[in-house]
Amino acid sequence: MIPLGMVHGRFQPFHNGHLAYLLAAASRCERLLVGITNPDPARTRAEAEDPRRHLREANLFTYTERLLMVEAAAREAGVPVPVHVIPFPINEPELWPAYVPPGTVHFLRVFSPWGRVKLDRLRRGGYEAVLLDEGAAKDVSGEQVRHALRSGGDWERLVPAAVARVIHSLPAERARDLGLAP
Fold first, then answer.
1. Each residue of 18-71: pLDDT tens digit?
2. CB-side exposure of 32: number of CA atoms within 13 Å?
3. Superfamily for domain range 2-178
4. How many other CB atoms sit within 10 Å of the CB of residue 147?
5. 69 vs 103, 141, 159, CA distance in Å?
6. Bridge partners for 130 per DSSP
7. Total-model pTM
């Protein structure tokens, strides 16, 4: 069993695929860090391999809203290890030592060229990186969920029930600002 593992993503919002990722990693470690990337909109950078990840419309939720989603989903799923949600500036490897202890094993699911870039970046940064579900297809994407949220589609089937409750608990003004359908 790995003492400390980590998963990371934008979680815009945290969906069922993210929960499967978190559970797969949690089954392999004693404690799990969940790194929320793009934690600070002012520091988010464009990435050639994923040209939309820095855009406003791809980053609806604040760091805190995403933290609440992850915590609620992990708690409701009964994740069997302690889960700690932290900011993780994936675009700034020079900052990683301030957030992630040496020896942390990063678990990744690679579905795109951006996933390969993250894998290479982590390994160049001196971290062990373990691929989960290599070759698997992506079941759901944040883009699908965001589209359904904005268009009034059936987004709730794409996210854990705990995440739906977090989104429904947003103040009406915030939901309007996000362009969420009533």
1. 999 999 999 999 999 999 998 887 877 776 666 676 667 778 999 999 999 999
2. 24
3. HUPs (3.40.50.620)
4. 12
5. 27, 16, 10
6. 107
7. 0.91
